[in-house]
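Pasting as-is:
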Amino acid sequence: MFVGEDTASAILLAKNAVMASQTLLKNESDSSMESSLPFIEENKVSHLDRSYELSEQKVKELNDLFTEVDRKPASKLTNLNYHLAQIALQTHFVNADVNSFVAMAESDIHVLPKKKQALVRKRIAEVKESAANRANNI
């Protein structure tokens, strides 16, 4: 399994947590006769979507780099150090995106019911641990 696959699933889980909290916020605002999310909430969702798309692109690039390294013997890679540096850099960017999604999920977790908060906090801790392990393995 590529490093990027773990990261992609972590990003997806973090995005889902934020989107769930956004849905709860929207449902709350709809029930109080407000027909749309506040401007700042719409911005947050839009930013999350853009960040997620960029993260998916970074994960694909990272997997492409790993595939390239896996397919060629080390003797054929004239710029092995360059490729390894690119992998480390791409992993760093993906981890930064994961951290951003986790922070957004943590900031919106208060709108969830207490039982759901505990589950989301547990998953956030797992995502953080996974990201830390990946960073240490580079």
